[in-house]
Amino acid sequence: MIELRSLSKVYPGPDGGTPALDNVTLTLPAGEFIAIVGKSGSGKSTLINLIAGIDRPTRGEVHVGGQAVHRLDESQLATWRGRHLGVVFQFFQLLPTLTVLENVTLPMDFCGTFAGAEARQRGLQLLEQVGIAEQAHKLPSALSGGQQQRAAIARAMANDPLLIVADEPTGNLDTHTADAVLSLLASLARHGKSVLMVTHERDISAVADRVVTLADGRVVGNEARRPATPAVRELRHA
Ligand code: ADP
Q1: DSSP E strands: which ranges in the chain?
Q2: CA nearest 51: which of 63, 43, 41?
Q3: What is the pLDDT of residues 167-187, one digit of tens each?
Q4: Average pLDDT of 202-224?
Q5: Looking at ligand 1, which atom is closest to the CA of residue 13?
Q6: Domains, the chain
Q7: 44 close to ligand 1 (CB < 6 Angstrom)
Q8: 116 C-alpha vs ligand 1 centroid, how far in Å?
């Protein structure tokens, strides 16, 4: 699903710049909920930005679902991202003057995937799936943080992407709300989506299928998790 080959990123600057990723080679399977963890500055955001084609590698290759992302030009990248990738941010980034439903249907308009009544219907179904259908016609500012993040997840699902990437999606939420958002992302993976998340959460092992650990721009851990306790199983199947 995601294949990184000898991937390096150096941000330009004095003294040869800042090395952020150092020769990372990694294969990640499809259909998993994958958490990327590591200390601040270890390269997590850089890694996710390279996978999402938001930034470009200094060296190496990024393949996502068979697409050589590092080879796409800016306009091809915009088309590919819009069609195959859903992105969820820490601060939601919903458009404040559009209703929640309009925020969710916007990527459909942008990519021409669904239009008119069909787009509206699909948007409502997605809002139903993330549990906030009754908020559809409100502006984002009328929603709680957790509800806004659910709306952002529905928006990320708009074009039925291969992969959802989320950079600290729970970083701005209280613990209880964060747990609910993590469960929602986990449930998307159980329904066949690949979900890749950068997180500081200590307890991601409860929901993640795989934990990739970075340190100083290198992968120092890549561990498939098998949750064992009944409480954990319950959370996974909630
Ligand atoms: P993390 O997400 O784990 O906190 P980052 O990928 O943001 O790590 O950063 C990795 C390294 O790259 C850090 O040393 C950081 O200071 C540096 N870095 C990140 N973004 C930039 C940038 N746009 N310009 C220069 N250096 C950057």
Answers
A1: 2-11, 18-28, 33-37, 59-64, 67-68, 85-88, 163-167, 194-198, 210-215, 218-224
A2: 63
A3: 999 988 888 888 888 999 999
A4: 89
A5: 25
A6: 30-56+84-237 (3.40.50.300)
A7: yes
A8: 41
Q: Does the CA dihedral 174-179-181-185 come out positive or negative?
A: positive
Task: Please provide the size of the chain in residues.
Answer: 238
pTM score: 0.89
> 3-state class of 178 per DSSP?
helix
Q: Which residue has the tokens 């009944």?
A: 230
pLDDT of 211: 94
Query: Vertex 138, ends 96 and 150: CA angle to 5°?
Result: 75
Pairing of strands 2-11, 59-64: antiparallel
Q: Rounded to the nearest 5°, which phi and psi values hold at 193?
A: -80, 150
The reported pLDDT for the residue numbered 49 is 95
CA 74, 75, 78, 82: dihedral to nearest 10 degrees? -160
Report CA(17)–ligand 1 centroid distance (Å).
Answer: 11
Let me know if 230 is exposed, middle or buried by CB neighbors in 10 A (0-12, 13-18, 19+). Answer: exposed
> Which candidate, 218, 210, 222, places its Cα nearest to that of 41?
218
4-8, 32-36, 113-117, 198-202, range with the lowest pLDDT: 198-202
Q: How far apart are CA 61 and CA 63, in angstroms?
A: 7
How many Å apart are CA 103 and CA 97, to the nearest integer? Answer: 9
Determine contact, residues 188/209, Cβ cutoff 8 Å.
Answer: no
Look-up of token digits 């064992």:
228
- Nearest atom within ligand 1 for CA of residue 18: 26
